[in-house]
Amino acid sequence: MKNIFYAAALALLIFLPAAARAGETELRVGNMGSSIKPAMVVLAHEMGYYKDEGLDVKLMQISNLNEGVTALQLGKLDILPLGVIPSLTYAAKGAELVIYGGTIAEGCQGVTLPENKDKYRDIKNFKGKRVAVHRPETGQMIMRAKMREAGLDLEKDVEIIQLDGFQAIIEAVSKGMADIGFVNSGFGLIAEKRGLAIAFNIKEVAPNAVCCRQTASREVFETKRGALVKFQLANLRAYKLMRDAPDTAVAKLTAFSGQPEDYVRYCLYSEVMVITMDPAVNRIKDFYKVMEANGDLPKVYKADISDNVDSGVYREALDEAMKRWPDCEYFKKMDAEFAANNL
């Protein structure tokens, strides 16, 4: 009987640590439908790169970004690779969240009728115009700040029309209900197919403008940090594939999303949405100030979000990628940009 007891105890000592380690390699990652906005997450998953790094990554469905942030806080999700506005809004109220990686930067485009496409390169020409926006989109928030910097009174000089999506914005501009609208996520291509023109890209006024980031709860950030580094390394590997083998990347993401091939290529290679794993902590802090100036933060909010942002996970993953592929020009470029983005 005593021998049986000792055998059982020994089994617990052997297997419990292994089970704990297994839990540390499991990551539940949120996505909305078959979206390829988190393109490198989807590509790394479809190519099996997470498994290669010893991770068990499950893509979990969420219906919206607020639901995703709530799921992080409740422990139902480990990573939300979409959005940044909800992450910052909740962090402003004291939520224990950490934005530790990037998904895309820039992305926003101004769309208008072809005869007006050159008019809006001078921001002062927004005066007296009807501007269609989708509120939870970073580009329109940045543009509102740029309008104020140009001397416009957003209460008197500009009519901001809030709509419930980018397709609605395209419709409003096409029908003359708005003079210009801000769209994201490849909707510039859809707007052009509808006969509209691109007035400008957000990078022309705000290079490396913050857009979707990767967010985790502080608990996950601290207890699964090693897994987050491996997750980011797999995403960097997907980025390398995207650059080295475009046809493979497009085929995988087209099959996953069900979107037309030209849409997928536009998202990946137009440089409108700049794919990045860099959290760009400096840009996040800049954007937080934009939200503050716009009145987009809660009435009571944290003045400093330094403890809600981190560049160390990305730095560690990039270091490992550069060891594996020392001649990769993409990783060398990321390395060169790191300090300006994060220090």
Over the alpha carbons, how many angstroms does the gyration radius reach? 22 Å
Specify the CATH architecture of the largest domain.
Answer: 3-Layer(aba) Sandwich
Instruction: Assign the CATH class of the largest domain.
Output: Alpha Beta
DSSP strand count = 11
The count of domains is: 2
Report on the biggest sheet: 5 strands, mixed
List the strand order in the largest sheet: 7-6-8-5-9
Structural class: alpha/beta
Q: Average pLDDT value?
A: 93
Instruction: Tell me the overall shape.
Output: globular
Strand content: 15-25%
Question: Helicity, in percent?
Answer: 40-55%
Question: What features would you describe in this structure?
Answer:
There is one protein chain. The chain folds into two domains: 2-105 and 212-342, Periplasmic binding protein-like II (D-Maltodextrin-Binding Protein, domain 2, 3-Layer(aba) Sandwich); 109-204, 3-Layer(aba) Sandwich (D-Maltodextrin-Binding Protein, domain 2). The protein is built from 15 helices and eleven strands. The protein has helices spanning 2-24, 39-47, 49-52, 65-74, 85-92, 138-149, 166-174, 187-193, 218-223, 225-244, 246-257, 261-269, 281-294, 312-324, 329-342, and strands at residues 26-31, 56-61, 97-102, 104-106, 109-112, 130-134, 159-163, 180-183, 197-201, 213-217, 273-275. The chain has a five-stranded mixed β-sheet, with helices on one face. Strand 6 (130-134), helix 6 and strand 7 form a beta-alpha-beta unit. The chain is globular.
